[in-house]
Amino acid sequence: MTLDLAAADYTLSGLRPFPVAVTTVDGGRANGLISLSAGSAAIVPEAPRVTISLTKYNLTHDMVTRSGVFAMHLLAATPEPALERSLAIIMGLGGSSGRDGDKLAPFATKPGVTGAPILLDALSYVEGRVVGSLDADESTIFLADVVAAERFGTGERLRIGPAWQALPQEWIEQYERNHVPQLEHARRNRGL
Known about the structure:
By secondary structure, this protein is of the alpha+beta class. The chain has one domain (16-189): Electron Transport, Fmn-binding Protein, Chain A (Pnp Oxidase, Chain A). It is built from 5 helices and 9 strands; from the N terminus they run αββββαβαββββαα. The chain has helices at residues 5-13, 59-67, 80-94, 160-166, 169-189, and strands at residues 20-26, 29-35, 38-40, 49-55, 69-74, 109-111, 117-119, 124-135, 139-151. The strands form 2 sheets. The chain has a 7-stranded antiparallel β-sheet with strand order 2-1-5-8-9-4-3. The two termini are 21 Å apart.
C-alpha cells in the first residue's frame, strides 16, 4: 500500500481546525506565533494540561525551551470587530519572524502569572508551565500544566478555513514565501 498524501492531509488537517496564538517570554523579551498544533492533554478537569507543537525554526520555540512558559490563545470569529482583531493577530504573529522585530508591540497585552504576554483581543487563553517535552525532529511538542485561564469574549472560535479565506491575498502570498525556509529546515531535520 502506498501513502496517499491527499488522504493524509485531509485526515490530519481535520484535527487542527483552530489557529492559536502562542506567546512566551524569555529573559525579558516577549514573542509569539500562530500554530495549528495545540490541544488538550488531560482528562482530569481540576488539573488541565495543554500541548503545543512548535517547529525548531521559530524563535518562539527556542524561547519556550529556555523559559518553560507560554500562553495559548483561541481567536474569535464573531462578532465582526472581534474577527478583525483576530485576523490582525494572525497577520502580526504569523507573517514574520520575531528575529526581525517586536511582533507583539501592536497588540494590547498584559503579563500573565508566568510573565508570558496575554493577548487581550483573543477570545480566551490558557497559560502553562512546561512539565515535559518530546523532540519530534522538526519540532518539539511541549506539555504544560495550565496555571491560569481566562475568557474575554462570548463569540465563536475562529476556524482556520474561514480565517484563511478572510486574509488578504497579498498577505497569504508573503506568508507562503516566508514559510519556504521553515519547510526546508523541517525537511533537513527529518532527513528528507
